[in-house]
Amino acid sequence: MEAKLSAASRRVAPSPIQQLSHLAQRAGAVNLAEGFPDFPAPAHVKAAAAAAIAADLNQYRHVQGICDVLAETMKRDHGLHVDPLTDFAVCCGQSEAFAAAIFAIIDQGDEVLLFDPAFETYQTCIELARGVSVYVPLDPPSWTLNEDKFLKSFTDRTKAVVLNSPHNPTGKVFSKEELLIIAQACQKMDCFAITDEECKIGPSSRWRIGWACAPASIASAIRNIHVKLTDSAPAPFQEAALVALTSTPDFYTSLKKDYTARRDFILQMLTDFGFRISFKPQGSIFVFVELPRSWQLSDMEFVTNLIKNAGVAAVPGRGFFHSSSDDPSYHHRYVRFAFCKSNDTLNAAAEKMKKLAASDARILRPTDDGEAGQTVSAISP
């Protein structure tokens, strides 16, 4: 029966993340691989979800208040005037919102430009819509947009450009100058810009509630596809998302402070282990670091050994690269760590990596650039 599976399903191979997850589970590794928080959700958001369940708000439901708040936010933060009644589709997280948007605009043979490295889900959605992914490499180490490469990637079949900012896996936030280049190119070529801001951490993202915002006719198409895919996002979680979105400014200031501390802690941890940090994440929840050349390891080898020898799980970078380059070896030289973890988790990871750096497991240590340090202090609650 396997031969009867669709061609699309056969093209979707297991990712490096999936391949290593079982090894990490068997080793009981500290999880710095997957980008989900392992600490409790905010109490007031959990209370809203619990109250909705107690009130039997558990059927198909559209919470218009989410769209009302989002419209106010778009006007305040971006100067955009959108209609909360017609210009939003509330979905089951970013993944469904992105898939519904792709299915709404992409036909067979349409090309979609993606910035490489890229989140792997994008390609799958485009293939399912029978479109063609075209990758535009960002230039390391700061992952800058190369205007010439970008503009030369357009053809008469280009239908859309996907802009992921903050960017997964690098943590890059595209500059105003880069955004202007992208916007002008989309206008000139008369193509869609699909912006994915999923990596902007907020309490609503933990409840797998996402949304798409577009002019009414496009939003209607996205919403119609969303209804056929899942009908509606879970009602209690929509109520929780509304409470999260209307949290006080102090709450979000505190949230930003906490994530900044976590980011800085993991950067110091990796520096002390022997990494040379050439790019500090500007947004997102990930650190994307290059292995020192002296380590003579690929990303897969490093992550496998890190799990086995230290009990810490990370993600090999190769799964995010797709485009050809003058130096394809760098596609196997990056590793992604997630820092959206509890202080206990981050401290445990630091201790395990410190012990590895002090042990005889030299396969993970520099050979030319000096010994890995051991100066990571604990992150405080």
TrEMBL record:
Gene Ontology cellular component terms for the protein in this record: cytoplasm
InterPro entries assigned: Aminotransferase_I/II_large, Kynurenine-oxoglutarate_AT, PyrdxlP-dep_Trfase, PyrdxlP-dep_Trfase_major, PyrdxlP-dep_Trfase_small
Keywords: Aminotransferase, Pyridoxal phosphate, Transferase
Species of the source: Oryza punctata (Red rice)
Cofactor: pyridoxal 5'-phosphate
Protein name per the record: Aminotransferase class I/classII large domain-containing protein
CDD domains linked: AAT_like (cd00609)
Every Aminotransferase class I/classII large domain range: 30-197, 206-350
SUPFAM superfamilies: PLP-dependent transferases
Position of the signal peptide: none
A Pfam family the protein falls into: Aminotran_1_2
GO molecular function terms attached to this record: kynurenine-oxoglutarate transaminase activity; pyridoxal phosphate binding
Statement: the UniProt record of this protein carries the keyword Transferase: yes
